[in-house]
């Protein structure tokens, strides 16, 4: 029995067991309240904003017929417990980064980011036009979820370090926070990789529990206060070149909604994907200038470190190729990314280079 058959069979059994305990969404005078749990601490810059945007859009577009009540990480369940909360019916939907759930299936990484993967635009191309949404739906269906992209951070920074990285050997023994498959790649370089919820990262870095961390980019990182702890900041990373965020609704709950309300959720998520990406990109430039003015040293990893990232990342991908779902998704992503990248490089890439040259 292959992985797909095993997971499908398991999910059917799990769904049957959970059916008797599924908590029905709250009703009041013909209106319905859906509970959204999140992987984000309340107020975390950009990411919690995305969850709030989706919730508000659903409420507004249905004239309050659907109201989404947000529970931040820790308010109903922990940040990394939202997947189980929604599949079991304890909550109706979650907003989060799907790569937190690679333990459920490694293919979930593709809907946030994989090392040396897609930029934000390439992710959107694949998701909306090259089969990504359909694959997300198939994967979610195994676990009783209906999933959509619902936010994007854009390219994420390489992270904050207590000392400079001069060679790949400097990762050996380094205690570093990085989720997803990027974290698994760092582990191959000898790092002690930590998966810590966003709201807890500042304390872990300031206490010395970790030696470094990636989070998102200049704006969100500045809001988190990492510049108060260290001044060494690598501005380009291999692990999240365009990180998507997702909403997943319990599939029984989703299918109990009217077609109009189902479409509202889909559209609210798609609108948030673009809105959130623009939010991050519009904020990051000014935030980077403030960080640099405050003494933060911005650096890039040496080429040999990038080479080590690439080798380790390839090993991580190869280890998952025995899973038919992962292999199908990887091949779909790579085909779409190659086609998108070639045109973007020859058009926008060439234009940006010439614009910088002409305008100085």
How would you describe the overall organization of this protein?
- The radius of gyration is 20 Å and the shape is globular.
- The protein is built from twelve helices and twelve strands.
- The N and C termini lie far apart (60 Å).
- It has a domain at 18-152 and 242-282: Bacterial extracellular solute-binding protein, family 7 (D-Maltodextrin-Binding Protein, domain 2, 3-Layer(aba) Sandwich).
- The model is unreliable at 1-24 (pLDDT under 50).
- The protein is α/β, with parallel strands linked by helices and 360 residues long.
- It has helices at residues 3-19, 47-61, 82-88, 120-129, 132-142, 180-188, 201-207, 218-224, 251-256, 259-293, 303-320, 324-359, and strands spanning 26-28, 31-38, 66-71, 93-96, 145-152, 159-161, 175-177, 192-194, 212-213, 232-234, 244-250, 297-299.
- Strands 1, 2, 3, 4, 5 and 11 form a six-stranded mixed beta sheet that branches.
- 49% of the residues lie in helices and 15% in strands.
- Substrate binds at residues 156, 177, 214, 240.
- This is TRAP transporter substrate-binding protein.
- Keywords: Metal-binding, Periplasm, Signal.
The CATH architecture classification of the domain at 18-152 and 242-282 is 3-Layer(aba) Sandwich
Biggest sheet record: 6 strands, mixed
N- and C-termini, Cα separation: 60 Å
Query: Any idea what the shape is?
Result: globular
Rg on CA atoms, Å: 20 Å
Percentage beta strand: 5-15%
SSE sequence, one letter per element: HEEHEHEHHEEEHEHEHEEHHEHH
Q: Structural class, judged by helices and strands?
A: alpha/beta
Mean pLDDT: 93
What is the CATH top level name of the domain at 18-152 and 242-282?
A: Alpha Beta
Number of helices: 12
How many extended strands?
12
Q: Which percent bin holds the helix content?
A: 40-55%
CATH topology of the domain at 18-152 and 242-282: D-Maltodextrin-Binding Protein, domain 2
Poorly predicted regions are 1-24
Within CATH, the superfamily of the domain at 18-152 and 242-282 carries the name: Bacterial extracellular solute-binding protein, family 7
Binding site for Na(+): 215
Keywords: Metal-binding, Periplasm, Signal
Binding site for substrate: 156, 177, 214, 240
Pfam families: DctP (PF03480)
